[in-house]
Amino acid sequence: ESVPCINDEVATEWLNNESVRKAIHAETDFSWELCTSRIEFYHDSGSMIKYHMNLTAKGYRALIYSGDHDMCVPFTGSEAWTRSLGYKIVDEWRPWTSNGQVAGYTQGYENNLTFLTVKGSGHTVPEYKPREAFDLFSRFLAGKP
Amino acid sequence: APQSALVTQIPGFSGTLPSKHYAGYVTVDQSHGRNLFYYFVESEGKPAEDPVVLWLNGGPGCSSLDGFVYEHGPFNFEKAMTKGSLLQLQLNPYSWSKVSNIIYLDSPAGVGFSYSKNETDYETGDLKTASDSHTFLLKWFELYPEFLSNPFFIAGESYAGVYVPTLSSEVVKGIDAGVTPVLNFKGYLVGNGVTDDKFDGNALVPFAHGMGLISDDLYEEVNKACGGSYIYPVNDTCGSKLEEVDKNIEDLNIYDILEPCYHSTDSSKNRKVTKSGLPSSFRLLGETERPLAVRKRMFGRAWPLRAPVRDGIVPTWPELMDN
Q1: What is the spatial distance between Cα B181 and Cα B133, in angstroms, rounded to a whole number?
Q2: ipTM above 0.85, yes or no
Q3: What's the pLDDT tens digit per position in B110-169?
Q4: Which of A43, A48, A50, A131 should we substitute to test contact with B (largest number of B Cβ atoms within 10 Å)?
Q5: What residue in A sits closest to B212 (Cα-Cα)?
Q6: B96: chain A residues, CB-CB within 8 Å
Q7: In a 10 Å sphere around its CB, with 0-12 CB exposed, 13-18 middle and 19+ buried, how is residue B2 labelled?
Q8: Rounded Cα distance, A141 and B39, in Å
């Protein structure tokens, strides 16, 4: 199967190369596919809102980020559900920067929950905006704003 | 770390690896022979101190090696390869392994390089996936105990908006119950993640309007007809207005509205149609791409005229009229 609009030729070719398989200790008797239809999958966990509530209430840090040009899971939904948790805003909506440029916008909530957009990025943020993605990732891990 | 899992060379890369790489399988169910594949990249910074991050791509059904190859892995593949030949891989200056130890996990069994000897395992769901991934983590940290004290994060995108919180919840339950080894779990990241039917389903129309993909007039009409809720159309007018919205956006690249849509030249890769008549390609969402998912909820079926076309069958005009 091919995924709509996605070119997966490089990964498919590299990961199905015999020498690559051997080098990375992968089984060789089936082919690698970006996305498989081999599995029959059930979404049996319902809404994730309750999970986010429980995890953030326990003090675990969460960063919810959105490439703002993605139409698959648009940022408008992520922005809405993070706001719906009802947490107090501790860092008002503001631009964040990467390499001296505005890279998107962010809003911080109590309980260590942050929502953040990445301007001009599609669905897979590090693919479309590698530098900005690296900055948001490394700052989050380091506990920096 | 198990030396048998050490990756000593990467085909296409001629230099010295900037950090240690390991790859292999962890058996999460011995009786079924359910094995999950991982690729572990040690940090290029301070591996003994830097966080350990588990990365999960979505689908469901998509390999996390997507993240390794196309997103934040140590190499730039796109610039290094042309069809049919392995060229010189370059290092990725924005690799997430610059600041973290990162595990790319293919999950559930059946995805990417992960597999089961018992094919009934290929029928699975969110909860079993989370449980298996938790088992994987416990066993993985037993294999790599030197990383147990490092801060641990779980990250992913798209349908991993489900994987990440459900797995995080399992991890926390394990910690609270005193399950060993005790993971030093600190938090999680979700990018463009699936979260909730209502919020995700209602997001598209305001997004399409905000991005200028639909007119102000159409936005006002659909909003008025549907009362601001677009998942379950409340009446026929709402349904037909949503269809108009879909017509405005259906030819765009769903993953980035400003990017062209790539079409494979390989005819064997044309979309297949599932038994239900729905296209089954779903890289990053539970069912299908979002507009189709919206349609499915709208009408209880998806795109009745286009499905056969995608299957290579072009209906005649009388057939269309019959439908």
Answers
A1: 14
A2: yes
A3: 999 999 999 999 999 999 999 999 999 999 999 999 999 999 999 999 999 999 999 999
A4: A48
A5: A69
A6: 126, 134, 137-138
A7: exposed
A8: 20
